[in-house]
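Sharing a chain and its predicted structure for anyone who wants a worked example. Both blocks are below, sequence first, tokens second.
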Amino acid sequence: MKNNKDKTKKIKKKKSKFVSILQYIIIIAMVAFNILFVSKAIKNPNKTPDLFGIKTFVIISGSMEPNINIGDMVIVKIADEPYMVGDIIAFREGNTVIVHRIVKKIDEDGKIKYQTKGDNNNAVDKNLVEENRIEGVYKFKIPMVGNVFMFIYKNFVIIIIILLIIMIYKLLR
């Protein structure tokens, strides 16, 4: 009987150790990614940091519905070839990134600019988009995943406090 209890305790201890190691690996990976993104943001403050040329954005407006909805996460890639009419692009407008479709390509004094429009908007965007403001071309979306990130962003402090309480509780056990 005692032998079974000892085996059960050893198994529980191994599982607990495995979970702790896994948690540390995840935390180290998150810290490494954050350091990478922060260093890229410092190096180029007018662009969103990327990972192997891929960027993600959460959609917060309905301007591209029904193709791209509020709460979707879009994946964009830095383009290797020229942008074409019909491409959906992510571009900077001040501190905001907008995801709209190119409706017209304009050669203005030898400089290429793009007229864009949200699929759900009645009018084209009033400002032309220069290539240096383009973050990338739309590749695909992950429906509703952005809602999770928006929840985390809005409740970040509460989530951090809960995680700290859990970690302190585990350390004191």
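Comments welcome. The helical segments are 2-43, 145-154, 156-172.
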